Amino acid sequence: MSFWEYLSNRHVQVLTDSLQHASAVFQCMVAATVIGVLIGVLTYRSEWAGNLATAATASILTVPSLALIGLLIPLVGLGVAPTVIALTLYGLLPIVRNAVVGLRGVDPSLVDAARGIGMSRLAQLVKVELPLAWPPILTGIRVSTQMLMGIAAIAAFASGPGLGNLIFRGVASLGSANAHNQVLAGTLGIVVLALLFDAAYVLIGRLTIPRGIRA
User: Fold this and answer.
1) Residue 97: is it exposed, middle or buried by C-beta count within 10 angstroms (0-12/13-18/19+)?
2) How far is CA 215 from the centre of its chain?
3) Per-residue pLDDT for 61 more than 80?
4) Residue 202 pLDDT > 70, yes or no?
């Protein structure tokens, strides 16, 4: 059976796995973005705190994804839970690092001006600092998403959702008629999803970043 014949016969399953893969990555990116930006906001004013936050999230990436998921299985079981926890943790570093860098890069004179017109500390952060730091934060989100697209395939080891199931089934049945087609379908599906997500981020950037800041 050719690859295109395989897709024609199994397109429903491939589409289902693709939607599950995209949903898992999207939800974990939302969680990682909220947590990562919050960590950046809490630590960027202190040199040692910012460095500690960056180092701590970087250390997570030194743990092999298969090992981390394996360690989580006895704690939270199989399925969605270990997938969500692992992906959220792996997505933190680029967001935390870029949030810290972006917030530290805001022109102090703009913050002083906001303070001078009576803005509270929270208002300064929400209306001045975070909007100006948004471009590097968005870049961190894009990088994290591309990473998680590939890492999410490992979730199949813990019976997680997504295209990794196709890849694992294909690898487990090497030599069978459709083994190569399964691996190829899963891999190409992840690549296509990564490109679609990145295109969406480019559009979000054009809609949310003023032209003067982009320039």
Assistant:
1) buried
2) 26
3) yes
4) yes
pLDDT digits 0-9 by tens, 162-172: 899 999 888 88
Residue 137 contacts residue 46 (beta carbons within 8 Å): no
Instruction: Dump pLDDT digits (tens) for 114-156.
Output: 888 888 888 899 888 999 999 999 999 999 999 999 999 988 8
Which own/partner pairs from 130-135 qualify as long-range (CB within 8 Å, at least 24 positions apart)? 130/37, 130/41, 130/103, 132/102, 132/105, 132/106, 132/107, 132/213, 133/99, 133/102, 133/103, 133/105, 133/106, 134/102, 134/208, 134/209, 135/102, 135/205, 135/209, 135/213, 135/214
Comparing CA positions, the residue from 149, 147, 156 lying closest to residue 60 is 147
- The stretch 59-78 carries a mean pLDDT of 90
Helix 47-60 and helix 3-43, axial crossing angle in degrees, nearest 10: 160
The angle formed by the CA atoms of residues 161, 204 and 202, to the nearest 5 degrees, is 85
